[in-house]
Structure of NAC domain-containing protein:
Amino acid sequence: MAQACLPPGFRFHPTDVELVSYYLKRKIMGKKLFVEAISEVELYKFAPWDLPDKSCLQSKDLEWFFFCPRDKKYPKGSRTNRATPNGYWKTSGKDRTIELNSRIVGLKKTLIFHEGKAPKGNRTDWVMYEYKMEDETLVSAGFSKDAYVLCKIFKKSGLGPRIGEQYGAPFDENEWENLDVNDAPPEIDGILLDELAKFLDDSPNDDVVLPEVLAC
């Protein structure tokens, strides 16, 4: 998948519901996404610091999104194998439910990367939110809700965002002043309202919440 970048002021900042009920659901069902913003990567083959370069959407916002096929630790078991060549991802806290219209549609798991061999690896600042589909309508329709998970990766720094801090990386004028509009990636530059309307008309109404693109 070709890499793309968003113009200044635009952020790929979907909510938990949007990640599960739009992106992950359509991935599992084999449906087309309006914007190909999330790469499919076998996350556990790589160290977390190698993953940013594998994102199809390049940005200085220090968070990255990936579809990951489920890799079971044991062939007949339900536990996921989260070991990597450099360490392992360890669960932190309890799973949180994601609800849409008072219905549970997904689970959100927090994991921390530990460098070294389990169980004595060294905790790092790399964090993963793993989103899992819990929509039983997929199962009744013949789809495996466990085929993929959607993962958000970021590196924690400090105690979190300061009050009033703006979302996203600082603007660098030098990166954009000589860029012609014709140089914009087709995934972004080609989005027109009539194309969006046609896409929505061709899509069934299945409780999908469209992703939000923020313009600051």
